[in-house]
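pasting Multidrug transporter MatE for the record, 496 residues
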Amino acid sequence: MANSQTRNLTEGPIGKTLFVFALPILAGNVLQSLNGSVNAVWVGRFLGEQALTATANANNIMFFLIGAVFGVGMAATILVAQAMGAKDMAQAKRVIGTSATFFFSVSVVIALIGLPLSRHILVWMSTPAEALPLAEAYLRIIFMAVPFLYMFAFLSAILRGSGDTRTPFFFLLLVVVLDIGFNPLLIFGLGPFPEMGIAGSATATLIANIISLAAMILWLRHRRHPLWISRHENAVYKPNPLILKSLIIKGVPMGLQMILISLAMILMISMVNAYGVDTTSAYGAALQLWTYVQMPAMAIGAACSSMAAQNVGAHRWDRVEATAKVGTLFNFLMTGALILPIIVFDHSTLSLFLPDGSPALAHASHLNHIAVWSFLFFGVTFVVSGVVRSTGAVIPPLVILGIALWGIRIPFAKLLQPTLGADAIWWSFPVSAVCAMLMSLAYYKWGRWRSASMLVGAHETGATPAEVPAQPPSPVADPAPVPTSTANARPEPDAS
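structre below
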């Protein structure tokens, strides 16, 4: 970590630069998934199917909570990356200061509101009655952890936007080690620790994130990271109106994407809950495997977004286009390489999360064979959307996602259940993923995302060229209209 620093993503070979930059992100995703899986092993094998069902429901709520402020963090990351590409450190710190103040304030409000509403939310989700008390105990502590989870994720995203992926990785490693270590101690009450059951698993997450967040802040201060805001620069924490406006206008649509996903997942698990604990625990076990399958796409997509944003700031549009192509290729190779062994050995891996002889194992294996392929297509959408958003075009990816989830996946799952039963739910994943991929590729080719601006109102307020991406020549001589499904959603260049 002694040499951790920002990375210039506007130079060097695209493939090698993207791979080296994405590697710590991928390793971090592996750590997070390993952490969740190990915790699921403790909960599922030693506390039973009801406890695993409880965590599956509560974790969907946590995903929703993260999505609620994800957009602001992503908007800040893109603005920082564009500023870094333009070599404007002062602008980068202004973005960090404003977004940190906004981000932390909102996270505290969400935690304070959510804590007393935990049980009501779970009841609304149709959480099975036998799992409800366990889910409530788990979710209440997760709400307490929200500000620390948010700030850790926010700092990590900002550092990645600057080209520094090593620092977030090492502190995420600390989170995982602490979380895995505290889980059995607090679940079973080993040594001086109290026996907390399922609440101990959530408490371990809380403690691990508090310690690692504090360590990261102290480390950045000690190392005087290029993005560290020193005492004499504290004025940047006062919200800048132009930046705050951009964070909200650009961040809200990106956050809505996460909310759409999480609400769809909540509705999906509500449908799954109707089939009983065996099916729900099978779905929860399959979700553990799916986290590994989607890791390459998420890592490559996040790397592509930061890399494209830096090149937008540097006006290197040739590298923006190349980033999208190389990222898509990497997704197919890496995601496909994971899907095959997970299909072949799914019974062995699923049995890690379910008790031996559980009837849920057969359900889990069946649904996994149907749905896991969807992540191959999901990865393309993730990469392409990341590149498109790097310019500030945030509305079209939101519309495409909304159509795929709420116009295709949810109706498919609900309307075909009388005919296909639970299989309608599983088949809705690949069907909607293919449609989302086709719509995303269509907008990438024919949409006007290249002429978008991330900093809202910059032209009117006299912002410097470094703060506003220049409009590149479109690679399409005569842009054709986008497909009907997204034509009405495509904004004008200054409103994307």
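The CA atoms of residues 462 and 468 lie 10 Å apart.
The mean pLDDT is 81.
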